[in-house]
Design brief:
It is built from 16 helices and six strands. It is an alpha/beta fold.
């Protein structure tokens, strides 16, 4: 998985491990350290931290996550910036390297980092982002883990802004009010509406509009595979079995998969339909086809849908990354869209 960069409060991010920018001594500092203590439970975390004792710069240690939505807190001590000639960059790199290796030892599948040492320790944000990105990218070239760099302040996020600007531009260019009329309007006769919907899906798949029949009887006579049939057909072609799908990211339960497999006319809610697309890691055109077979789509008039579409178009099928982006834009997590 690629490095994911979001603007969020790190204490609200879901991950197996949350990295904390700790003080060398077991005392509560400011910034991220204070926020982590407040969210995790100050008394419990302080007791665990006292038991560890002093932490050397660049070192990484673990405690339970207590009330955070994580399994572990990884505490690492960043360098105090002087002028860049006192080993600051090497220490900061060690913070990321050692934290990632510790997360790996702990069996973590996901880890979230703050921008270490850029607060009271004064490390320049642009240099810190460059070091963080290189360290994380190097780790991910040999390891499979979801790694998120969580940036809280606006100035730092602008520096990393390529991802944010890309998705914002994507939403701005696709989120159009006219799409609402297309989705929910009642004007026009049924033949024209069906023709228009068929044309839309044909364009998504790259089909020629001449393939779309004008007559409704001809259209309805073209029997297509059901959602269940499509899922099983995709699995068969890829040599996948049930656990390959329902164990992937825990998107789909074994019962849901069994219900789908045993019912040709199984009709999923929208979240479940999207979850199957993510679990199967379908490219965007196949995602749209599978959703359409269940009567769903990723609409241009819904920002949440556009965010899902944006991630899939880039080959990012991580439900955690999608949820983090949704939260960044003030939206609900995907599993709450079970309409």
């Amino acid at each position: 998985m690629p490095l994911n960069v979001i603007r969020q409060d790190i204490t609200k991010v879901k991950a197996d491990a949350i990295v904390n920018t700790a003080n060398p001594d077991p005392v509560i500092g400011g910034g991220t350290d204070r926020a982590v203590y407040n969210a995790a439970g100050e008394n419990e975390l302080r007791a665990a931290r006292i038991a560890i004792g002093k932490i050397a710069p660049g070192e990484a240690v673990k405690t339970p996550a207590f009330a955070l939505n994580a399994k572990y807190i990884i505490h690492t001590v960043g360098p105090v910036w002087e002028d860049g000639s006192h080993g600051e960059a090497a220490i900061l790199k060690a913070c990321y390297d050692n934290s990632l290796e510790l997360a790996k030892e702990l069996g973590c599948r996901s880890v979230a980092f703050p921008l270490i040492a850029t607060g009271t320790y004064g490390f320049p944000k642009d240099k810190a982002i460059e070091i963080a990105s290189k360290s994380i990218d190097s780790f991910l070239s040999h390891n499979d883990m979801d790694v998120t760099l969580v940036i809280f302040d606006k100035e730092a996020f602008k520096i990393t802004g390529a991802k944010f600007q890309d998705i914002t531009a994507y939403i701005d260019s696709n989120y159009v009010e006219s799409a609402h009329t297309y989705e929910y309007g009642t004007e026009g006769n049924i033949n024209e509406r069906i023709r228009r919907e068929r044309l839309h899906m044909a364009r998504v798949r790259g089909a020629d509009s001449d393939d779309i029949p004008d007559d409704i009887d001809e259209l309805l006579g073209k029997e297509l595979m059901t959602f269940s049939e499509r899922v099983l057909d995709i699995m068969s072609k890829r040599g996948l079995n049930g656990p390959d799908v329902y164990n992937r990211q825990h998107l789909i339960t074994k019962k849901v998969f069994s219900d789908m497999k045993n019912n040709t006319y199984y009709h999923p809610n929208k979240y479940t339909a999207i979850a199957f697309c993510l679990a199967l890691e379908l490219p965007l055109d196949e995602t749209m086809d599978l959703l359409n077979s269940a009567g769903w789509t990723l609409s241009k008039s819904k920002k949440a849908d556009l965010i899902v579409k944006w991630h899939i178009a880039r080959g990012d099928y991580s439900i955690r990354n999608i949820n983090n982006t949704l939260l960044t834009f003030g939206l609900k997590e995907l599993d709450q869209y079970k309409q």
